[in-house]
Specification:
The protein is mainly α. The chain is 61% helix and 0% strand.
Length: 133
Amino acid sequence: MARFAKGQSGNPGGRPKGIQDKRVVLRELLEPHAKVLVKKAVDLALEGDTTALRLCLERLIPPKKAKDDPVRIDGLSGTLTEQATKVIQSMAEGDITPAETAAVIQAIAGHARITEIDELERRIVKLEHRNVT
């Protein structure tokens, strides 16, 4: 797979002017029928069609979006392994939920990947510099 040079777009000209998003085109096709389609969905819902009922209710009362509270874990330091162990220990002690544990472990893993990439980049630059001089 070919990669682009750093800072160079795969499409430097951008999206051509006048090109419409497919969703916009489909909405425009449905728009003249909106009232009839909504009435049909409501009628189906009232007749017991559970899919239509769910669709109508989700439009009236959208699903609540999750809002995470900050997670506080005292003493979260040391190696990445020690940090992960502390997070799991906090869950075992009931201080944080399993979902919070998964989110924090995922953040630690992401941090580890970023750190690893940074370190590899530093080592490559050092090797290239050594080979040039």
